[in-house]
Amino acid sequence: MWNSGNYPTTELNITKADAESVSGSGQQIHNVVRLLQKKYIQRQIARIDPEMLRKELKEYGAWGKEELENHIDNIERWLWISGNDIVERVYEKKKKRR
Questions:
Q1: 40: exposed, middle or buried (C-beta count within 10 Å: 0-12, 13-18, 19+)?
Q2: What is the DSSP letter of 65?
Q3: pLDDT above 90 (res 22)
Q4: Percent of the chain clearing pLDDT 70 (strictly above)
Q5: E strands in the chain
Q6: pLDDT, greater one: 5 or 27
Q7: Which of 49, 60, 63, 95 has the most Cβ atoms closer than 10 angstroms to its Cβ?
């Protein structure tokens, strides 16, 4: 299991394979929706405070206030970002070992 996030209120524990399934540029929404169906992900999402997630996503500067009002969209954004963060860390770890 890997975790992501610099914020303990929105940390995600996820398998490497699941992180890889949603990482990458471009539209990953189909993979994110598939990931949202997993019980272990659903349990974690249920504990997320919508306001804390909005604050975290706002710091990325990629979405405006109105866009960040939809909690479901924010969850999808968060899963995509988390997957990318984890895959990047795995890559960096392998690179350091070389």
A1: exposed
A2: T
A3: yes
A4: 89
A5: 2-4, 12-14
A6: 27
A7: 63
The residue to which tokens 């997993």 are assigned: 38
Count of domains in the chain? 1
For residues 95 and 63, give the distance between their C-alpha atoms in angstroms, rounded to a whole number.
Answer: 32
Query: What is the residue whose two structure tokens read 């860390």?
Result: 89
Q: What is the largest CA-CA distance in the chain?
A: 45
Which range of residues forms the domain containing residue 46?
2-97
Identify the bridge partners of residue 2 per DSSP, sorted by sequence position.
14
Distance CA 42, CA 26 (A): 24
Q: Per-residue pLDDT averaged across 51-55, rounded?
A: 92
Q: What are phi and psi of 47, to 5 degrees?
A: -90, 0
